[in-house]
Design a protein that fits this description.
By secondary structure, this protein is α+β, with helices and mostly antiparallel strands. The chain is built from eight helices and seven strands. A hairpin with a 6-residue loop joins strand 3 and strand 4. Helix 1 packs antiparallel against helix 2, helix 1 packs antiparallel against helix 6 and helix 4 runs antiparallel to helix 6. It starts with 9 loop residues before the first helix and ends with a helix. It is found in: Membrane. This is Synaptoporin. It is a multi-pass membrane protein.
């Protein structure tokens, strides 16, 4: 039977938050699709197209995204491609999120159903600690890379920038404009969840470290040193014994004098001295 009490502890509770936040991270990024629309108003109105839809999605290989724009020369159309490839940062972020989800879910199951195996030979806590440190670092790197890539994706898909790619818009006789731009709320949320995952994994390092033999060994050493120090202060001071003048040993270290001093072998009378 599983010990679900571990979920009430920070170690188990944070693990549950980790796999939940990992789901939100890769779902908001990997499931994104956006659209922007631009208009090309040619001098010849018959050639104009006032609503050109441009769709793009994860993994944001924008150089493969194309659309047809009027050449403003009769009915001829031109195929235009967007600029940029941001798939590496996006896929790296989603990959870290997926693996973090799988590991945190597996760790939660181990905490609940295999607690004895986890603590056996201290191998489980050590592996858990190392993996937690690695994922903390990877979350920071992947979230930072994806945040930078997202800013470049926003710039590359800005309708004002896309208009500059259309040859007909470079002629002053034609008028080009933007109908609407993409919605970025989902991708912005993915970046937020990325850094939240970093905070969760970095904060969980301490609680996983407490389960390792390193922390327990340090605690034992600190406890033994404190007990030894306490025992030293609790010892009674050493009282050195002394001999009194009468020849008896005083164990309390006090010099006791006889009540009357009598000279042994001294003269008994004045006449004897004469």
């Amino acid at each position: 039977m599983g010990t679900f009490q571990v979920l009430k502890l920070p170690l188990g509770f944070i693990r549950v938050l980790e796999w939940l936040f990992a789901i939100f991270a890769f779902a908001t990024c990997g499931g994104y699709s956006g659209q922007l629309r631009v208009s090309v108003d040619c001098m010849e109105k018959a050639s104009s197209n006032l609503s050109i839809g441009i769709d793009f999605a994860y993994p944001f290989r924008l150089h493969q995204v194309s659309f047809e724009a009027p050449a403003c020369e009769g009915i001829r159309r031109e195929r235009v491609f967007l600029i940029g490839d941001y798939s590496s940062s996006a896929e790296f972020f989603v990959t870290i999120a997926v693996f973090a989800f799988l590991y945190s879910l597996m760790a939660t199951i181990v905490y609940i159903f295999f607690q004895n195996k986890y603590r056996e030979n201290n191998r489980g806590p050590l592996i858990d600690f190392i993996v937690t440190v690695v994922f903390s670092f990877m979350w920071l790197v992947s979230s930072s890379a994806w945040a930078k890539a997202l800013s470049e994706v926003k710039m590359a898909t800005d309708p004002d920038e896309v208009q500059l790619l259309i040859p007909a818009c470079k002629l002053q006789t034609n008028k080009c404009g933007s109908v609407h731009g993409p919605r970025w709320s989902g991708l912005n949320t993915s970046v937020v969840f990325g850094f939240l995952n970093f905070v969760l994994w970095a904060g969980n390092i301490w609680f996983v470290f407490k389960e390792t033999g390193w922390h327990k060994g340090t605690t034992k050493l600190a406890g033994g040193a404190s007990e030894k120090q306490a025992g030293t202060f609790n010892q009674q001071p050493y009282n050195q014994g002394s001999f009194d003048q009468s020849g008896s040993y005083n164990t309390q270290g006090n010099m006791s004098q006889p009540s009357e001093y009598s000279q042994v072998g001294g003269p008994t009378s004045y006449s004897n001295q004469m």
